[in-house]
Amino acid sequence: MTPLELIIAIVAAFLSMCMFSTLYGKSSPLYALAEESYIGFATGLTVVVNVLYIYRTGILGIKAGNWVLILGIILGIMVLFRVHPKYDYIARLPIAIALGAQFGLALRTTIFTSFLDQIRATIVPLFSGDAQTILYRWTIALCVIFMLTFFLYTIELKGPLKWSATIGEYMMYIAFGAIFAQTFMGRLGLFVGTMQYLATPPWKKPILVASMVIVLALLIALDKTGLLERWTPEE
Amino acid sequence: MTEERSLARMLAEIDRRIIYLLLFIVVTLPILRPVAMPLAVSPDTKQYYKVLDALGPDDIVLFVLDTEFSGYMEIQSGVLASARMIIERGAKMAIACCHPEATGIPPMMFSYLGDVMEKYDYEYGEDYVVLGYIFPNEAAVASSAQDFHSIAREDWQGRPITGTFLDKIHTWEDWSLIAIFTTGIVSDAFIRHYGLRGAPMVVNCIGVMIPTQKPYVDTGIYDALLPSMRGGAELEKLINAPGPGLAAMDCFTFGHYLVIIFIIIANIGYFGYVRRVKR
Predict the structure, then answer these.
(1) I need a surface site. Which of B48, B69, B99, B278 has the fewest CB within 10 A?
(2) Are A219 and A30 in contact (CB under 8 A)?
(3) Using CB atoms, which residue from A60, A113, A184 is nearest to B192?
(4) What is the chain B residue with the closest CA to A111?
(5) Is the peptide bond before B30 cis (omega within 30 degrees of 0)?
(6) What is the Cα B259 distance to its own chain's centre?
(7) How far is A162 from chain B (nearest CA, A)?
């Protein structure tokens, strides 16, 4: 462990715990400190990395003889006019071009990836493969039919159609449950990963525990003395 | 009866800070003191393993870090285990980032995998190149699929990439595998401009993305999907290289048990108190 690593570990653990102070249920200056620090750091990093990106792809490209990139640089400069109230209309042109290009690039292929290929993947042989595959395919096929009947709006749902729609509705509840569970797992994963980063290698563990105790003690002390709200900067 | 109702009321009105605190404790304790609970390997992970296991020294992998730093925390086990597999099989690896914060990940990766890289004599320039932040948006991904060197001329430290194994890469067809580690920044663009053309792709995504990414395995766009940190842990188990994923599984297990308990408690509170009050 070098002194620099130690400082990084202390700052990371303390600021992370300050971020978690939001769970205390009240606004706190500790949370504001961590939040503003993160915004400042992320903005600085984004600016530096993007300037380097412009240099590597734009400037180097022009130097390599790709003159059309000059147009991109000019359009990029035009975006900066957005901060000037009088000339902000100039920024609309490059933004419109960027949006148009983005839509053009995405729409051309989205119809295949998100629509046609998905339909094709649903229409599969229902009686080939092992038992697990057959079960899996039947489940998908039946769920698609049941759920589609739930979304039939132009006819009255009676008899078998109503049954199918009802089953489709319950299938959706099951799907929502599965999505919620996966969302919870994902959010827990973010938390666990962060805590692991703060606790690995083992010499970081006392720093993490100390940060937890200090932040919690500070929160309670500030709350009891009425300083919690007074010291929290306004939004 | 009154006592029953008061218990139900207490359960219905638990202070959410108690829930947060309990979850915090239950998830943090196994990190400080691991329990090593058993873990089964899912078919998804086995499929992912097979794809990476098939790589050889002649293969070139585009290793895409499509994540912010916070998201990386969830998929780092998959990133590290996948990189380890690629190194052990001698395949070449070009690491590209899709978010400014991801530029901090490669140094951490290689610091963690230092022993493996030394063992397999995995050298910068010869076996791997860190390209840095080269995929900020769909246009960059689309350009790279048609002419890779139009978006990447230097590595992240400004050294020219000519003379490296990347000389063999011109279009999407030249990659042996596109491995995406994603929180969903531009992964859809890779599907549209690489996957749809037929480039072999695998993905390791965060938990909330699994329902949206899984259909792409069924359609054949992805060769395999490694689901979240759990998938990373399973891959660590398969390659016999315990890492952050396996260590995190205790936290997941206890965290999930606690949530199940809270769901039961909340339902007792709802049926025992809230519903009666509403009536």
Answers:
(1) B278
(2) yes
(3) A113
(4) B192
(5) no
(6) 23
(7) 27
3-state secondary structure chain B: CHHHHHHHHHHHCCCHHHHHHHHHHHHHHHHHCCCCCCCCCCHHHHHHHHHHHCCCCCCEEEEEEECCHHHHHHHHHHHHHHHHHHHHCCCEEEEEECCHHHHHHHHHHHHHCHHHHHHCCCCECCCEEEEEECCCCHHHHHHHHHCHHHCCCECCCCCECCCCHHHHCCCHHHCCEEEEEECCCCHHHHHHHHHCCCCCEEEEECHHHHHHHHHHHHCCCCCEEEEHHHHHHHHHHHCCCCCHHHHHHHHHHHHHHHHHHHHHHHHHHHHHHHHHHHC
Q: Which of A133, A128, A125, A161 is nearest to A146 (CA)?
A: A161
| B224: β partners | B202
Q: C-alpha distances in angstroms, A132 versus A139, B217, B248?
A: 11, 17, 30
- Residue B133 and residue B155: Cα distance in Å, rounded? 9
SS3 content of chain A, % helix, strand, coil (to 5): 85, 0, 15
**Chain B window 196-235: which residues touch A at a Cβ cutoff of 8 Å?**
196, 206-211, 215-216, 218-221, 228-230
| Neighboring chain A residues of B230 at a CB cutoff of 8 Å | 185, 189
d(CA B25, CA B33) in angstroms, rounded, equals: 12
The Cα of A156 is separated from the nearest Cα of chain B by a number of Å equal to 31
Per-domain boundaries in chain B: 43-248
Q: What is the ipTM of this complex?
A: 0.82
Could you tell me the pTM of the whole model? 0.87
Distance CA A113, CA B219 (A): 8
Q: CA-CA distance, B194 to B141, in Å (whole number)?
A: 8
Residue A123, classed as helix, strand or coil, is coil
d(CA B86, CA B56): 8
One digit per residue, pLDDT tens: chain B, 279 residues? 455 557 888 888 888 888 888 998 998 888 888 887 888 999 999 999 999 999 999 999 999 999 998 899 889 999 999 999 999 999 999 999 999 999 999 999 999 999 999 999 999 999 999 999 999 999 999 999 999 998 998 999 999 999 999 999 999 999 999 999 999 999 999 999 999 999 999 999 998 888 889 889 988 999 999 998 999 999 999 999 998 999 889 899 999 999 999 999 988 888 888 877 877
